[in-house]
Amino acid sequence: MRINGRTGLLCLIGDPVEHSLSPLIHNTALKELGLNYVYMAFRVSKDTLSQVVKAFKVIGVKGFNVTMPLKKDILCFLDELDPKALKIGAVNTVLNRFGRFIGFNTDGMGVVKALEKNNVKIDGSYIVLLGAGGTGRAIAYTLMDRECSIAILNRTVEKSKMLALEVSDGPAMVEWGPLTEGSLKIHLSKADVVINSTSVGMKPMDGETPIPKSLLRSGLTVFDIVYNPLETRLLREAREVGARTIDGLEMLLNQALESFKIWFEAYPPIEQIKNALEDVRRGYFAHR
User: Is 185 an annotated catalytic residue?
Assistant: First the structure.
């Protein structure tokens, strides 16, 4: 990649961002397509967000991704929202369209495509979704259009109830409940897929898990969107009981591909990207 006076800029903003693999994914994609852009990560706090967005507009940033804890706060500083992002109430992708910043959310589609590419059946399945925050909302809004059953469990049960009501007008059958051991026991007994969209298991909480190991079983697909660490306690214990596991790199890749399409109106070739992520995965387990 050669940087010159015509090189365009794409970014990630959030706090923290030092661990992010988004620059690896997008710079690999840009290189494969010969596009004269560079993707960089910037640590941005809520206090400086408005200044950063203004600066991005002044210098003509083509687009940027938004990660925690800014996915909701960014809404106030955008010119327009995609209808689904408006309903979700969170944005992870911004496009600069002729000087106007437009917000999108690709998190839900990233999860659904990750499941499908791993040959996990969605239609006809009973899916337990842990968490009703920004990412959980994105996943629920994407799954609501499928012929599946969804049980939304959250520590603050009112949030799971409100989200369930919001996504109940699609084909999916939606339930809600608290994220407690008793509730988990009921819903996991009939589940085909469980998706952890909470931050439990992410560093520095990497010794924790949202599901007791005793409730996990073979025949269950366990998808954890956390990728730092790559194998969370939840995934490790699920693997130990014979469940199928999908790690957070799968969501990261697929939501990134959706962001790339928003910016450039085409998906990048993914073979080199997948190879780069597989190197990360191999390196992680080699040093365990």
Answer: no
* Boundary-marking domain end, from 90, 105, 120: 105
Total number of domains constituting the chain: 2
Whether residue 154 is contained in a domain is answered as: yes
% of the chain surpassing 90 pLDDT: 92
Q: Which residue has the tokens 């920004």?
A: 134
Which domain does 238 fall in, by range?
108-249
Q: Is the pLDDT of residue 287 over 80?
A: no
- The reported pTM is 0.93
Q: Which of 190, 183, 126, 186 has its CA nearest to residue 160?
A: 183
Q: How far is CA 67 from CA 45, 103, 241, in A?
A: 11, 13, 32
Spatial distance between the Cα atoms of 98 and 105, rounded to a whole number of angstroms: 20
Confidence band for 187, pLDDT divided at 50, 70 and 90: very high
- Same domain? 112 vs 100: no
Residue 54, CA distances (Å) to 42, 58, 165, 183 in order: 15, 6, 36, 45
Closest among 123, 184, 189 to 153, alpha carbons compared: 184
Name the catalytic one among 71, 72, 87, 161.
71
Residue 39 lies inside a defined structural domain of this protein: yes
Dihedral sign for Cα 72, 200, 19, 84, please.
negative
Query: For residues 73 and 49, what is the distance between their CA atoms, to the nearest angstrom?
Result: 8
* Percentage above 70 pLDDT, the chain: 99
Could you read off the pLDDT of 87-105 as tens digits, one per residue? Answer: 999 999 999 999 999 999 9
Given 105, 123, 144, the domain boundary residue is: 105
